[in-house]
Amino acid sequence: MDLGIRGKRALVCASSKGLGRGCAEALAEAGVNLVMNARGAEALEATAQHIRDTYGVEVVTVAADIVSEAGRAQVLEQAGQIDILVTNAGGPPPGLWSDWERDDFIAALDANMLTPIALMKALMPGMMERGWGRVVNITSQSVKAPIPVLGLSNSARAGLTGYVAGTSRQVAPHGVVINNLQPGIHATDRAASLDGGVASAEGISVDEAKARREATIPARRYGTAAEFGATCAFLCSQHAGFIIGQNILLDGGATNSTM
């Protein structure tokens, strides 16, 4: 399917690896030029060069902490005119409700709520003036079904979801479409780290820890960054203009819900 976005320009955050990279590659395959951001310059540039060589699109890299005001300003200055925005940031650490203090919540809100909002506020006015734009926020399945040990993430990402619910309906008349993607477990470094932690704590192999987790997923496997990216690219396409303010769950059926 031709997504109809060849020649558009996208900013993809945290895109040197994992789900962000999956989104960047899928957009590049559709002919979208990229501005890629991550904190680590070496990994970011290696991924960018792979995308240039594979898909022949223009790729600008900006190694900066998108959560910091200075880093965000650097990214936006180099990004220029952006048609597609994909926001993404790693989740805050797990813990118990009794562990977290005000500063922990402020840090979570900065990374997983306020940074995406700041990027949308900076880039959507231009999209609205041009009459076309796409925003995809990578959130989490924990917005749909809160995970007790991820209370910081539950709170911050739910806040972003509420903001998008109202804002998406206000900008839709101007051709700007905002939606959220809610990933479950995917085969990324984050999943490998979680499996390693379980293996170490329970004295089992990493393969056994992974098999146990896969058994809890109706699809009986982890998702892939490629299929996640393909969904993101569709939401950024010309065909997604009637999908407004939605939360798309990609979790292999792990969340047992009809709505």
Can you give a write-up of this model?
By secondary structure, the chain is an alpha/beta fold. It is built from eight helices and seven strands; from the N terminus they run E-H-E-H-E-H-E-H-E-H-E-H-H-H-E. The chain has a seven-stranded parallel sheet, sandwiched between helices. Helix 2 links the parallel strand 2 and strand 3. Helix 1 crosses helix 8. The model has no long low-confidence stretch (mean pLDDT 96).
CA distance, first residue to last residue: 28 Å
Mean pLDDT: 96
What's the story with the biggest beta sheet? 7 strands, parallel
Structural class: alpha/beta
The proportion of residues in beta strands is 5-15%
Question: Whole-number radius of gyration?
Answer: 18 Å
Shape assignment: globular
Q: Secondary-structure element sequence?
A: EHEHEHEHEHEHHHE
Helix content: 40-55%
The main sheet orders its strands as 3-2-1-4-5-6-7
Could you name the ranges where pLDDT drops below 50 across 5 or more consecutive residues?
none
What is the strand tally? 7
Separate helix tally: 8
Considering the chains and any ligands shown, give keywords for the structure.
259 residues; alpha/beta; 7-stranded parallel sheet; 47% helix
What is the strand and helix layout of this fold?
Elements: E1 9-12, H1 18-29, E2 33-38, H2 41-55, E3 59-63, H3 69-79, E4 84-87, H4 102-130, E5 133-138, H5 151-171, E6 176-183, H6 189-202, H7 206-215, H8 225-235, E7 247-250
Helix pairs in contact: 1-2, 1-8, 4-5, 6-7
Structure in a nutshell:
The protein has helices spanning 18-29, 41-55, 69-79, 102-130, 151-171, 189-202, 206-215, 225-235, and strands spanning 9-12, 33-38, 59-63, 84-87, 133-138, 176-183, 247-250. With 259 residues, the chain is of the alpha/beta class.
